[in-house]
């Protein structure tokens, strides 16, 4: 149980385009999901906390107009990288909290974004 | 800010040997967690140790927590080639559910 999926697994896009990444909790409800970014050989950096039915909370230094987050249901959160540029190329990982259990986050497999 | 911070290490060991990695943090925590990440993949939760616990075991994993030194260690005993991965510690502070990840340890187990 507690499986989280991400789609797409990898995407290549041209500079200036927008890319949407989906994060789904497949067999549980998640009122809270998190979005992380990971550059090569580096650790995960929390970008934002996504709460179902409310606005996301962004970490300091993360542009909310650049990284749009929508958490429209208890099983789906989306991250849209708007007007992507090569420096946005990274590995984006989401995680989800099982509703009622706050200690353990279940991670998705990640999405590799390459902006040309 | 980064709280869970382990010395970024690259460990290369022979299969069957033990692998130890450390993690330090700066402020009081509610719990500390260890994760494994295979290359290009998501994270797998390994073990959680609460601030009032000192040691925890899970299979071949042994985690210790020293809150006075604000440090934790992860020991993998009798390592296997399949243990080759990056290992991250992450801390959770009181009052929130966000994870602060450390820099990670790259472990290579040579068959």
Question: Explain this structure to me?
Answer:
The complex is a heterodimer of chains A (116) and B (111). Chain A is mostly beta strands and 116 residues long. Chain A contains no helices and eleven strands. Chain A has strands at 4-7, 10-13, 19-25, 32-38, 44-51, 57-58, 67-73, 76-81, 90-97, 105-107, 111-115. In chain A, strands 2, 4, 5, 6, 9, 10 and 11 form a seven-stranded mixed β-sheet that branches. A four-stranded antiparallel β-sheet of chain A has the order 1-3-8-7, with no helix packed on it. With 111 residues, chain B is mainly beta. Chain B has no helices and ten strands. Chain B has strands at 9-14, 19-24, 31-37, 43-50, 55-58, 61-66, 71-76, 85-92, 99-101, 105-110. In chain B, strands 1, 3, 4, 8, 9 and 10 form a six-stranded mixed β-sheet that branches. In chain B, strands 2-7-6-5 form a four-stranded antiparallel β-sheet, with no helix packed on it. The mean pLDDT of chain B is 89. At the A-B interface, strand 4, strand 5, strand 9 and strand 10 of A face strand 3, strand 4 and strand 9 of B.
